[in-house]
Design goal:
Helix content is 24%, strand content 28%. By secondary structure, the chain is of the alpha+beta class. The strands form 2 sheets. Strands 2-1-5-6-7 form a 5-stranded antiparallel sheet. Strands 3-4 form a two-stranded antiparallel ribbon.
Length: 138
């Protein structure tokens, strides 16, 4: 029986705030393009959304001028991103963030995806030993 997943927007906001503002740490995100909404609202260029259908990788470095707004909207944050030398004002809904990480690791919010792929046979035993909805990626 599947239970209704809790929204983790507050956790994601707190984690990004800690990494970017308090810890001045670069945050690496993977954004699910299917969770962005309409192009006129999210602001990502079409060529980026089309190039990364499995997840748009973002590198948010607080040492670069991001023009980042984590608090202006409850359901999303806004950030200015540069693609091919052009700056775009992008809106990223919290629900669209699939992974938040630093370096090569991260935390995956698996419970927010509509369909979770079936794990390989040898991973099932390991998954049964863990609880919760977060998975550390190495």
């Amino acid at each position: 029986m599947a239970s209704k997943a809790r929204n983790s927007s507050g956790t994601k906001r707190a984690l990004l705030t800690e990494l970017l503002q308090e810890g001045t740490q670069t945050a690496k995100l993977v954004v699910d393009p299917t969770g962005l909404g309409e192009p006129a609202v999210h602001g990502f260029p079409d060529f980026i959304v089309e190039r990364y259908p499995a997840g748009i990788p973002l590198d948010l470095n607080p040492r670069w001028p991001l023009d980042l707004d984590l608090e202006g909207e409850r359901a999303a944050f806004k950030v200015s991103l540069s693609f091919r030398g052009v700056v775009y004002r992008c809106r990223v809904p919290w629900r669209a963030i699939a992974i938040i990480g630093v370096g090569f690791g991260g935390v995956t919010w698996e419970h927010e995806s509509e369909q979770t792929p079936e794990p390989p046979e040898d991973d099932r035993a390991r998954d049964q030993r863990t609880t919760g909805h977060l998975r550390i990626i190495k």
